[in-house]
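Practice problem 4.
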């Protein structure tokens, strides 16, 4: 039996029209790989290929708009379409924060506060219109639009918060990863044993997996002189992309049988 995470015991998890996958360990594995790859892929396109932040942001945003259009034409959850958009929106969310910080001089603290506010407003508007924030009921176009907007802000917020802790607070990549991982585990324990609301727990963990993945992505890809392990952005991105593709293929095959 598939283990459902952050699903209320009284709520049936299966909704054929839902456009979001079941929240299983595989979901969190791909999510963590996707956010890690989002960090390293953005660095690769921006720095290694020399495209620069603005051209990279325009290019990736255009691709994301196209893949989201495909996602919205589907009547149900399709693994490859959904996860392709997660990977791309992870890259765009990273670039959004990087543009604000590097090109416009906005501080990481300001970005963290601003994206927290925008995410809160998105949740408020979503709940006001639909009466629920459940990811088990993303089964209409408006709910799906709110969902993807919230996902974009979680990635931008996670990037800002992760960089704030790792760089500005000088905690380092490994310590930051351990910190965010510990908070995630405490939230999971709170949901599992202390009755923490499932929807609240899901969204908090979703936000925190972004800086968790980014911390370990930077740890692997950044040069040793900067506190990393020196694997580089190409190898690190390919490593995590391989895990994503393999897991999505397995999920797709299971849906077809």
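Answer key:
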């Amino acid at each position: 039996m598939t283990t459902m995470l952050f699903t209320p015991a009284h709520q049936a998890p299966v909704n054929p029209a839902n456009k979001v996958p079941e929240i299983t360990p595989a979901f969190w594995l791909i999510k963590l790989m996707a956010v890690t790859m989002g960090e390293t892929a953005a660095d690769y396109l921006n720095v290694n290929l020399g495209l620069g932040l603005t051209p990279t942001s325009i290019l990736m945003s255009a691709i994301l708009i196209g893949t989201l259009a495909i996602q919205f034409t589907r009547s149900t959850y399709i693994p490859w379409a959904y996860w392709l958009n997660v990977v791309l929106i992870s890259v765009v969310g990273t670039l959004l924060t990087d543009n604000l910080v590097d090109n416009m001089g906005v501080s990481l603290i300001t970005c963290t506060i601003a994206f927290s506010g925008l995410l809160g407003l998105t949740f408020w508007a979503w709940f006001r219109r639909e009466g629920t924030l459940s990811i088990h009921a993303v089964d209409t176009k408006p709910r799906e639009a709110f969902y993807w907007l919230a996902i974009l802000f979680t990635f931008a917020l996670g990037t800002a918060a992760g960089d704030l802790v790792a760089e500005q607070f000088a905690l380092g990549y490994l310590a930051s990863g351990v910190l965010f991982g510990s908070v995630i585990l405490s939230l999971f324990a709170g949901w599992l044993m202390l009755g923490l609301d499932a929807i609240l727990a899901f969204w908090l963990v979703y936000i925190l997996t972004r800086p968790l993945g980014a911390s370990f992505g930077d740890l692997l890809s950044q040069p040793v002189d900067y506190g990393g392990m020196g694997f580089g952005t190409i190898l690190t991105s390919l490593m995590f992309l391989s895990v994503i593709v393999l897991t999505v293929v397995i999920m797709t095959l299971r849906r077809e049988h």
